[in-house]
Amino acid sequence: MRRIGVFVCHCGINIAQNVDVEALTKYASHLNGVVVSKNYKYMCSDVGANLIKDAIKEHKLDGVVVASCSPRMHEHTFRQVVTDGGVNPYRLEIVNIREHCSWAHNDRQKATEKAKSLIRSGVAKAKLLEPLQSSTIKVNPDAMVIGAGIAGIQASLDLANEGFKVYLIEKEPSIGGRMSQLDKTFPTLDCSSCILTPKMMEVANHPNITLHTYSEVSGIEGSIGNYTVKIKKKPRYVDLSKCTGCSDCATACRLKGRIPNEFDMGMGKRGAAYMPFPQAVPLKALIDDKTCLFLTRGKCGDKPACAEACQQKAINFEQKEETIDLKVGAIIIATGYDPLNTEKLYEYGYALSPDVITTLELERLISSSGPTKGEILRPSDQQKPKSITFILCVGSRDETQCTWCCRIGCMSALKHVYLLREKLGEDVEINICYTDIRSYGKGYEEFYRKIRGHKANMFRGRPSEVRNMGAYQKVDIFDTTTNKLFEIKTDLIVLVPELVPRPDAADFARLMHLTQSGDGFFLEAHPKLRPMDTFVNGIFIAGCCQGPKDIQDTVSQASGAASRAACILSKKELQIDPLIASVDEEVCTGCGLCVEVCPYEARILNEKTKIAEVNGALCMGCGACIVACPSNASIHKNFTKKQLLNMIDDIM
Amino acid sequence: MSNEKKSLTSTTKHGSVLVIGGGIAGIQSALDLADSGFKVYLVESKPSIGGVMPQLDKTFPTNDCAMCILAPKLVATGRHPNIQLVTYSDLKKIEGESGNFLVTINKRARSVDESLCNGCGLCVENCLVRFKPQKPTKHDAKKDLAKNDLEIVDKIITTYGKEPASLIPVMQAINEHYKYLPKNILAYIAQELEIPFSQVYHVATFYTSFSLKPRGKHTLRVCMGTACHVRGSPRVLDEIKRHLKIEPGETTEDGLFTLETVNCLGACALGPVVVVDDEYYPVSPSKVEDFLKKITKEDELIA
């Protein structure tokens, strides 16, 4: 016969105001198997913990029922408490009388009755709980960072400087991400590449960082502490060890200046053989196999011009895509964002006129390394614009597009006002159509006030349409601060689009077993207290793949994610929760249904014995195999049929 | 020189970190560092860690109960073998450099032995000052009055009756006797008539005939009504100001005259008119000097 103790928590007044805790305590003391029953204001406090520990010793308890908040909240706390008291942590049962009773019901009487039933069933289960031991797994101390924008770079550097080996994976031919495309950053007006390039160089030269550019993740196996990640390395057709980055091949390419350059957001042109951008890391050429004449048609004049030009003989058309396996203990995902595709917003006329551009395109126009060498020229006629109009919140805070705020649009537009005034002088008209100016960061409001002195016409409203008049653009804007309709004739329209998840975010999430929030960004485990963690242990997120944010927040989050990853990597061994599936070998028929349903690939059918097995490190205890098993051979530890039926019997 | 260089490139590092501030930021930093195997000292100036977050009820945008999501972290911090809490303490001095800091911390006296206290709360229950806010002892306004003042005021109060309704007549009598309302006497009236002092002050400042400042022996009221104004009362006022060297509302240094202006005295036919105490005098600007001398002479004669 078990000796059970029941401990009822008031949770301040959270539980006590709607549930009669005294009556509950008295009721529990009469239940079969219960030898002690107590209540306290905050059971999770040190005092409450001591109360439980003392009761365990005094009454020689071998099972504990705590009636308090959700087990998600304090199961860990109370398991530790009962362990300290000398009871196996898995002989603890939490009964949730807060979320299920006091918060859910207004009728105190009925809520108390419900709490009584729940405690009754909790005690019924506690009587049958088995003591379990958690097992340990060894931890691989290497880390992987996916995405080498500023978030990935920061996270890699932090981890590498702490002494961990880091594999940094980047899809593009160079690291740097979105930040490398920017000219200046708000609110300090630091030159973006001047502050980023040193970090990129540090990544390139760090002995602990192995860089895999032009590579993508194609598969993942394993679990926290022991992941095996498949990396698909796209062929670059340039031997990295030989290429010196002289860009002779790019100059020689027959398609030079004919293919829109991705780095310049299509504002500039490149060849099929090209350098990603002047500060690229690694500073190596590559050949684009989608456009290269030799790779698409098998013929490029008599001989490929790039191969002719390369003195290092680095061009190699024989390169093939290869897949490598990397073993790591923790993964940080920093895959970034895309600006919303403004082409589908017909009213803004992006597709109709080259003189309607986006902020990132303007960024490339302003940048001295951009296609116009920093001159602000209208794309249609290469003339200096006399009037420039910004439209903020394109697709943002809009029920039909994206409901969220991009958090950087207002500030980036204000920054552009400053840069345009600097480059074009006082006599250029600058109009800003805004919804609200959200200058929430440190120094942002001050920056906004400073820019107000730079003669920008602020219109509070969203233009309904941008009309292409050929030589100029026309915008009707109803200013809600003056209640007046203005008609603006302008030379250049700059759209400030919403930030959206990468187009392959859903596929990537499925691949990595991540969850997406409603907006498509990767979901954090808790928005306040676990903003870098995901629901998959050992995988962390940082930067804009989690949601729109500015560079400051991105860097903070990246350092935070690195710190979270270090918590795992610094340990030699990890404890594995024993609340997982197991197999009754005598009953298992080897049908393999459990193997099919397991979402974590934790189930294997032993070919020899024809009996299913469970990989404890991978099993998350979801219970899918338990339901699927037709012969009751799949057992969830401490959620056995007998235990659950006993609970139900006592509730009824 | 070589010594300096040596200290700059020192490689003997301490595997411990000091976190200053035990709010949610400090707690999270401490936990992450401690989980990574570093020894952490968490210094907090308040008696408990937690910071502002436990003061919040719910957190946006999820409406999570702030305490409910913070409490597990508080408990984990308190229990972590790698974290040493240094509460109720302030940073005093930092020496050294990155990798080798020596930090001096001032631990304020808690007057409770932290290693022995188990948080039972019995001392709180039994504390004698618990639930007994320290009220200031009631002040007796009588003590602030001189003996002869007390006699005068008591006499006035008995004349008009010791009830709230007598406030204005009592104040008038006092104003007449002292030529103003001294603060200590007002406080005494409030106490005796059982009226809040604020209400007494309210009445005293409402009527212009009451003054809270000491006034001269004679009050000169210069009429600035339309008729007097037309007949030259501003010039009379200017003359008086020049002779007495005071502005309206002020009292001369010798305590003889208080100057005031009024909007109409109802004696337009006599204008420009000046009322000295309760006597009406038609005064022209040129006769101001003589007029003032006459009043002082009368005083001397009486004396």
The share of residues in helices of chain A is: 25-40%
| Sheet with most strands: strand arrangement of chain A | 10-7-6-18-29
Extended strand count of chain B: 11
| Helical segment count of chain A | 18
Distance between the first and last residues' Cα of chain A: 22 Å
Structural category of chain B: alpha/beta
Low-pLDDT runs of 5+ residues of chain B are 1-11
Strand order of the largest sheet of chain B: 9-8-10-11
Termini distance of chain B?
93 Å
Specify the overall morphology of chain A: globular
Give the averaged pLDDT of chain A, no decimals. Answer: 93
Strand percentage of chain A, roughly? 15-25%
Radius of gyration of chain B: 37 Å
The percent of residues in helical segments of chain B reads: 25-40%
The major β-sheet of chain A equals: 5 strands, parallel
Query: Radius of gyration of chain A, Cα only, in angstroms?
Result: 31 Å
Number of strands of chain A: 34
Overall pLDDT metric of chain B: 85
Largest interface: A-B, 26 and 28 residues
Task: Pick out the low-confidence regions of chain A.
Answer: none
Largest sheet of chain B: 4 strands, mixed
Can you tell me about this structure?
The complex is a heterodimer of chains A (652) and B (303). The mean pLDDT of chain A is 93. Chain A has 18 helices and 34 strands. Chain A is an alpha/beta fold. The relative contact order of chain A is 0.10. In chain A, strands 10-7-6-18-29 form a five-stranded parallel beta sheet, with helices on one face. In chain A, strands 20-27-21-22-23 form a five-stranded parallel beta sheet. Chain A has a four-stranded parallel beta sheet with strand order 2-1-3-4, sandwiched between helices. Chain B is α/β, with parallel strands linked by helices and 303 residues long. Helices cover 39% and strands 18% of the residues of chain B. In chain B, the strands form four sheets. Chain B has a four-stranded mixed beta sheet with strand order 9-8-10-11, with helices on one face. A three-stranded parallel beta sheet of chain B has the order 1-2-5. A two-stranded antiparallel ribbon of chain B has the order 3-4. The relative contact order of chain B is 0.07. The model of chain B is unreliable at 1-11 (pLDDT under 50). The interface between A and B is medium-sized, with 26 and 28 residues.
